[in-house]
Every structure is written in structure tokens, then in C-alpha cells.
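Q&A FORM
Asked by: J.P.
Topic: structure of DUF2272 domain-containing protein

PROVIDED:
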Amino acid sequence: MTASTAVLEHREARRQAMPGRLVVGQLPLLARHVGSPPDLVLRWNRVPAGARVDVVVHLHGFSARGRGMNLVRDKLPISGLDLGGRPMLGVLPRGHFFGGRSGHGFSFPALRRRGAVAALVDEALRRFNGVTGAGATRGRLILTAHSGGGAALMQIVGEADPDQVYAFDALYTDPAPLIAWARRKAGNGAMRVIFRAGEGTAANSQRVAREVPRTARFRVERTTTPHNDIPGAYGGRLLTDPAADLPGVAPAIAGSAAPAPPPSRGLPAAQPPSGPPATQLSERIAQVARAEFRRWRPGGGAALTEMMPAAGPILRDYYRVGVGVPVTDAQLQNPAYQGVHPWSAVFISYVMRTAGAGAHFAYSPAHQTYIRAARRNRLGNVTGNPFWAYRVDEVAPRIGDLVCNARAGSGATYDNIGDAQTRSTHCDVVTEIQQGRVRVIGGNVGQTVGEKWLTTRPDGRLSTAGRQSTFFAIISTRGPRTAGTAAPPASAAPPTPHGPGVPYGPPTPAAPPATAGPPAPAALGDVNARAARVMELLVQRYRYPVAGAAGLVGNLMAESGVIPERIEGSAETTPTRAQGFDGQVRTFTPEQIRDRDSKRGLGPKLPGVGLAQWTSANRRAGLFTHTFDGRRPGAAILSDLPAQVDYLVTELGRDYRAVDAVLRSPAVTVEQASDIVVLRFEVPAVVFNGKPGDPAVQQELARRRGFGQRALAAYQRGRP
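REPLIED BY: S.T.
REPLY: Here is the structure written out as C-alpha cells.
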């Protein structure tokens, strides 16, 4: 591959500068570096046209693969280039293989020349603008290094003069250049050093801690996180917030601590936790939202609106604190500007930042960004992050949670919100819970910070009837929740006024308990709800009889738990995490799952993927090239349940007509439908390797018939 044949792996980025990746086979600047192509990988998040983009250059470490190291396969997944909410361009150059005593050594001689880092950044921006048309300009320069990449960092940090530096267990060599740089940048830069005690990086890291005054943005901390996992564990958090308090770390020097940030205007300073941190955060989120509601009603009078002069300082505060974007009064009082710059997600970002969410929240001027992040936390079982997105019918909203809906006819759902398409959404903060309703506060509601009362069901979950039909997600701010649980008593939050001049309401009774049922695992509510959704699609859209659909869906329950993202060998709670060809268990991206290559050892070791655990190469290829509703989702089909159901129906009607005919027979029973799918469509290993009369085969048939009956019951519970 040559530079002229660089591969753009996210072609939609050309149109919209949406998140994407560019792989460059050969780069003249790095021609002296010995090794295997590609020479360069670029990764970016959403970048508006003409934006200033922060450029993050990552210097990778040694590799046991030696000269055969491949950036995409071996270094990008552990680079920590998990780009934050503001526009960013990640730059991953391939180092020069020199081997050394370990036989694994890489260095970066081409970047040691004067001006070489600047030239690399300019070339990266040129290529990025060329394939996206974004017209972006350079913002801040951020250098990150892992392991042996720290030696190159020490060689170039002085001349490159970055704005921020993050060293991930990387200080094996004299850190004097980093110390000198940090002293120069103390007023406006950021430096975070993470190391493992007892490693070869410890002494130099502790020296930096002694010689560089500790502040919120300049810290040296030790961790027990495995060496190769450190960039992935902390890179994204630091790129989002250089002052983030990181989980699982301790100060390099005992007794040192970063100074606390000043309290936010109009709110009391945060107190030491008096309860579980997640609960404290949730209550603080609601507190901030209520305070902002009052802030827009000076003296308890009429509400300000966005283009009033008195609203300008408030909105400037939201943009500056929430998403780090400066705006002027002239812009804020311009109807054309306000018309294309809705600030509701900016408000949510401000609330979260002020409440102390730190690097856990994906701050953004677009709701979709943080909804996606919270959904990834839930699907990836990221228990260290309190923001988990659930389907609207899975959990009851609690104080401090976010309730999210599609708007402007965008069609956003829990299942499609993770794909590459931009969908208009809106979220509000839950601030009060009463019998049969919840109070929510949001930004840019009627051109102010407004409130709404939403109707809830008897079990405390949000109603999706009538005007609330577009709500699709609840973002828990307390981490994992048991699906189907009701809200706690509303006394968890103090009563608040319902509006200017309205007295406090009566004491709020507790929400009634969820509908009783037989004991079941926590995931049961999830799988039943998913099964019912697929049943609805099969019966209503594709006209399958109910029994035929139940037999089919029961098999999906057995295969994947009806989780569209699930890959073979994963758990329901971590559906994209499984063993790779190298024996390591990791979380795979949709692109890595799609591009699985057993000959090259890329992607998950086991091939099964999606609702039906499609396994063979041609069936997997069919899934990722399937066209649904006039579009081809590609790798994003892993988060698109309706598109996978459409592929399933298409495959049945085209390649398994005899099976499809049985499923569509009006007289078919659940058991007959289940059996035909097991024996002629799914053909699990026990069936493939046995005979119909074998006890093991009969046991599997019985098991899947049971799933079919569960699918039928789940569907019927939602019918009148």
C-alpha cells in the first residue's frame, strides 16, 4: 500500500466529518523507520466544518511481534486514543524497529529532527481535511506515550512544546526534559504521569512528582492497572478532562493531593461524601438542575429566554464550563445562530461538570454523544462509570437520572443510537418523583431552562403512551441497575417548588413495587423485553403467525440472549468482550468484529455474531452488507436490532424457504417452529454432531422449546 492508496475506513466521514479512521500505508516523513506497514493511523471524532481540532500524537512502546508489529492490530486498540467530546484528531505513527536487547524495541528517530513533530501534525491535518472536507485548523497539541515510547517523548517534548503531556508507565529514561517542560507550562498546560510501583518507571516518575508542583492538572499517580491496559484505562478520561480524578490511582508521594476546584457559582461547595459516591452524584445532579431552573427566574419572577441580554452571561457560562466553547453575546442574541446551535446538551454538560461527574461523562453539544457513551458503558459492563443507559421500559427513573427522547422525527431508538447516523435527541434531568409522575428539568425548553411533568406507570417506569411515545432511554447516574426495578421513595430528594409562586407539594409517597413474578436472574427482564420487541417486528411488520415467531425468537434467546451486539464466547453483560486469536480477552469494536480474519489472526477468535450468531463467512458477510430501509449500516448493524431482524427474515425467505414456510404456516405450533429452526436453520453443534434421536439432541430441542414459550409469554404480556 502507498500513501496514494490510503484506506478510508469510514467513508461517511467525507460528507459529514463524523467519527472515522484513515490508515496510511507509507508516509515519506517516516520512510527511515524500519517495520511493517501501515506507517500511520489517524482517528477522529465528530469535527464541525472549520473547527479548531486538538491533535493527539501517541508514541507507542515496544512490541513482542518485533518487525512484524502492525499498528491497527497491535497498537491502536491499546493506545488510549479514545477521543473526548471536543473536536480531536488522534495521530498514531509507527516507530522504527531496532530490536535491542529484548528484540522488541521501537524508537522514533524521524521525529527527533527540528520541526518534525509539527510536520507530522500538518501532514495529518492535511490528510484529514482531504478525506473529510472539514477544513479544520490546528488547536492544542497533546503528546501521549506508553511504555518504551517514553524515551522518544523525552527526546522531543522540549522542541515540540506540546500543550499537554500524558505518560502511561513510560518514564524509563531521565525525565529532566519533561520536568523542564512542566515548569514552563505550569500556568496553562497539563501533565499526568501514571506508573506502576516496583517497575522500571517508578523512580523517574517519583522524581517528577517531587520536582513538579502538584495541581489538579499536573499530577503523578501510581496504579495497579496492568501495564498494557493503562493507556486504555485512562487515556480517554484525560483527553476529555485533563483535571479528571482517575479511578484506581493513588498519589506518587503519600499524603499529597490535588487542590479541590473552586465551588461553582450559586452552589455550595461540595462536601465530603456521606454516602455511596454514585448516590451523592445523582443528588448533586438534581440539585444543580434545580438551581439552574431558579437562576433563569430572578427573584422568582418570569423566566428569562435565550436572547434576552440577562441570559447571555448564563449561556456563556454553560458553553464555557460545559463544553469548553467560547461564545459572544452577539452570537447568543442572533436568531440565526440560536436556530442552528441548540444548547440543551450544553446545559446537560454544564450540569454534569458542575455536579462533579469528572471524566465519567461524555461532555458534548450533542445529546447523542453521551447517550452513546452511557450505552457503551452498559453493554461493556463498565462498572467504574456511573452513567449506564437502559431502554425506557427496563428501569424506573430515579432522582438525578436522565430521560431521553427522539425529536424532530429523527427515529432515534436505543438500538440505533449507537450507529454512525446523526439523530436529533433531547434529554432532561429527573428532579422529583411523585405517584404517577416525575418532574424533569432541561435546557432550551421553550428557549429557557424549563420543566415538564412526565407520566409514569404503576411500577414507576416511564409511560410511552401518547406524547411520551418518543422516549427511548433512561440514563442511570448510579451505575448498574436491575432491569425492571421500580423507583425508590421520592423522599430521596427534598420537595421542591413546582414553579414560581407555587407552594411546595404534599409529601410524596413511594412508588408501588414492580409487578410480582417468579424469581429469575437479573437479566431476565432484559431478555424478555428484547424478545417481545423482536416478536412485535416479526408479527406486525413481517406477518409471521405468533406461534411461528415465538419458535424463532426462542432460538434467538438461546443463541444470543436477543442481544444484537453479542459475539460468540461473550457474556450477556459484556456482549462484545471475548477472546482474541492471541488468547487475550478484550472488548472488540464493531469494525474489528466485522473485519475478523482467522488467517491473519484479527478480531474475535470465535466467529459467531449477532442475534442468530451467524458464523459462516458468507452469512457474516451478508449481515454486514445488508441493506435496510434504503441504507447499508455496515458495522453499525451490530447496534441496530430492526436491521438484524430484517436480515434474518431476508435470509429465511431467500436461503431457507422450507424453514420459512413452516414458520409462516397458520397452524404451526411453538414447538414445531422451534424444532425446524434448531434442525434446519441454527443447527447448533450438538445437532450437527448427533442424530435426531440422541438424548443430547432431544434435550436441546426441549430447552429451545422452553425458550419459545418464554418468548410467547413475553409477547402476550404486552398485549391487551
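FOLLOW-UP: The CA atoms of residues 555 and 704 lie 6 Å apart.
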